[in-house]
Amino acid sequence: MTTHVSGQRKLIIATTIGSIFEIFDFISFVFLSPVLAELFFPSTMKSKALWFTYLTIAISYLLRPVGGIILGHLGDKYGRKSVFSISILLMSLPSLFIGLLPTYAQIGYAATVLLVIARILQGFSLGGEVPGSIAYISEKFKNRNYFLACAWLTFGANFAVATGSQGIKLLTEFMPHDFLYSYGWRLPFLFGSLLTIIGFYIRKSISESEAYREIQAHKQIDRIPLVTLLKDYRYPVISGILLSIIVSLTTSIFHVYLPNLFVTYFNFDLSTAAGISSAGAITMAVFSLIFAGLTKWINPMVILRTALSGMTLIFLAIYSGWLNVTTPSMLYLWVVIISLVLAGVNGLFFAILADLFPTQVRYSGIAVCYNIAYILGAGITPLWTSSILEFSHNYSDIMLVCLIIAIISLANTYNIKKLTNYH
């Protein structure tokens, strides 16, 4: 019994490390964007440098579906374990490269180009990492509460937001300016690289999922899983994207971009922004586990629809001006409340994505849904949110987008119910 429990913990740790790294690296890049903008772009660009740094984030997201498709294909064709181990190692190399990269002052535009290339390569490998974790953990825990097992992945991601934002806060507050701009900014990327190498060694000893071994034994593996996915499972792909996008959009806006954009446009200080991000992330991390655990007694559709209804009402109230979030205390309060409500979606959607697809195309299906949703919901978000605030200094249009997506996501639950066995 003790060995069995220890084995389960090892599986959870092995999968969660990938999601921790993905978000930690993302948070580090976003929170350090003002520093990176100064270091990797010429001083003559001034405010445009930050916009181009955000563009670098968007470009890296565009490569994620390509990585997801290729790694997803390999994972469905040759097994979860090998691809699952390789993807985390591939993630560490660009992070290490960024941490050692010369700056614009040293090698000119070559530094800018190399930074973009590193982010592109990282985006490629990240495209297969989280989908692989979801496919693997849902199959390994299928006969137990796999909702709770998958929720540990979202716990890891939100834990990374909290620790990452606080870590950057400490760097910027207590590190001397000269050291921050010479070596200090490199530390998060070097630490992230080390974290993934540890994850790689843990994953080397895990076993293939039973579900995949079963289709392997019965020779039910598709020759080209992606073709099968797009031919026979287009409806589940669309539903999976619509399910995922509300999480990617809302978490990226309220845990990352909005607090940081308010530093620029509403004169919040960086430590306040980091505190708001951390509070929201910790709230969602804890309650994601709680809501996932409740699926043992409550139908997942009830939790999902209740959470999305709550999100719709909150966004409507903020957009209509009934709620004002332009003061630190109000933004702090509503980020925590939004995070608590969104946890009803965040704690469930990984397991639901796994349930939308059979074993033969599960890795590919999750990869397509997850990565397209994260391009639309997180990858291009810094560009349009910063543009809105730059030109209007009014966040209501941002809330309108959130409201529309919440309504679409709520309507999509009827499709999800038809495609799964949550009756």
List the main descriptive attributes of the protein structure presented here.
83% helix, mainly alpha, 20 helices, 423 residues
Structural account:
This protein is mostly helical and 423 residues long. The protein is 83% helix and 0% strand. It has 20 helices and no strands. The longest helix is centred in the first third of the chain and has 32 residues, at 109-140. It is globular, with a radius of gyration of 21 Å. The mean pLDDT is 85.
Which secondary structure elements does this structure contain, and how are they paired or packed?
Layout (H helix, E strand, L loop, with lengths): L1 H30 L1 H8 L6 H16 L1 H15 L1 H20 L4 H4 L1 H32 L5 H29 L2 H6 L4 H17 L6 H8 L7 H8 L1 H32 L4 H25 L5 H21 L7 H19 L2 H7 L6 H18 L1 H12 L3 H24 L4
Helix pairs in contact: 1-7, 1-8, 1-10, 2-3, 3-7, 3-18, 3-19, 4-5, 4-7, 4-18, 5-7, 5-10, 7-8, 7-17, 7-18, 8-14, 13-14, 13-16, 13-18, 13-19, 13-20, 14-16, 15-16, 15-20
Q: Secondary-structure element sequence? A: HHHHHHHHHHHHHHHHHHHH
Largest sheet descriptor: none
- Mean pLDDT score: 85
Estimate percent helicity: over 70%
Q: Cα distance, first to last residue?
A: 33 Å
Beta-strand residue fraction: under 5%
C-alpha-based Rg, rounded: 21 Å
DSSP summary: helix tally: 20
The low-confidence runs, each spanning 5 or more residues with pLDDT under 50, are: none
The rough form would be described as: globular
- Going by helix content, strand content and strand pairing, the class is mainly alpha
